[in-house]
Amino acid sequence: MTEVFPHRLPGDPAPEQEIARMLRVDHAGEYGATRIYQGQLDVLGRSRSAAVIRRMAEAEHRHLTHFEALLRTRRVRPTLLQPLWSVAGYAVGAATALLGEGAAMACTVAVEEVIDEHYRSQAEQLANEDPALREAILSFRDDEIAHRELAIAHGAEEAPGYELITAAIKAGSRIAIWLSTRL
Ligand SMILES: [Fe+2]
Ligand SMILES: [Fe+2]
Fold first, then answer.
1. Which residues surround ligand 2, an ion (CB under 5 A)?
2. SS3 for 124-176, per residue?
3. Of 53, 128, 146, 163, whose CB has the highest number of CB atoms within 10 Å?
4. pLDDT tens, 134-144?
5. 30 alpha carbon to ligand 2 midpoint, in Å?
């Protein structure tokens, strides 16, 4: 794991820059999640899976609203790549949905596994820093884990090409995180 607060000594000022980067990447991720589900719902809005996708989409909107408010109050700019995540997220959502309901669920499994790790590592890095943020991250992480379980319960692992789909989406999500932390 990368050390986020490498040169800090006890009593040093809060590492605002580092927390700003965390907020930026988390906002980007939740935004991307809403775009994925929008793409899935535009394809599968009338399918058996619609209700469960809608339920997950609502949670992502709640997460996104939280980070939007934090960016505003702390005067942190969003990632420059937001227009890209709009298109890429939607495309991944629509493409997996076109492959079928199982593939759409496999997409959720992949994304949530990466986000689970990502939020866990942020919570560790925050340690005693910014307890309110840490708590929000841990609570959102619980939601993401629940989404993953819901997606498995709705047939993710039975999707043809499950391994391939999840490997590709995990790789893409990690790249998106890396880029959104830096840009
Ligand atoms: Fe989320
Ligand atoms: Fe989620």
1. 144, 147
2. HHHCCCCHHHHHHHHHHHHHHHHHHHHHHHCCHHHCCCHHHHHHHHHHHHHHH
3. 53
4. 999 999 999 99
5. 8
